[in-house]
Amino acid sequence: MFGQPPMVHKGGKASIAVGIVAWLSAAVLVFTLWVLGRAITCPVPGKFVMQLKVLGIFWAVGPPVWFWFEYYALWNRDPSTFETLKHGQALSAAIWLATLASIAAYLKVF
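Predicted structure:
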């Protein structure tokens, strides 16, 4: 019932690249949330605006480029694994959009 999902990526270096990007993304997410929390609680208005703009650019451009690269370069092209890849990217997209929306809301981009 809870077995391993099918192997979505090409083996070897592709799997290592996916693992590295996953850990780096998680670290950048934690850092982004930390900066956002500091910006919200900071008594000096606008102190973290530049950092949040840089992080906003990263979150606006980085994940779509990664999704494209993952699909075209790392996916193993096995049709039976497409749904697993699509599900993983959908979950990642939800986190990506929530992070970007949080930064945009703080910066009053909308």
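Summary: The helical segments are 13-41, 49-74, 82-107.
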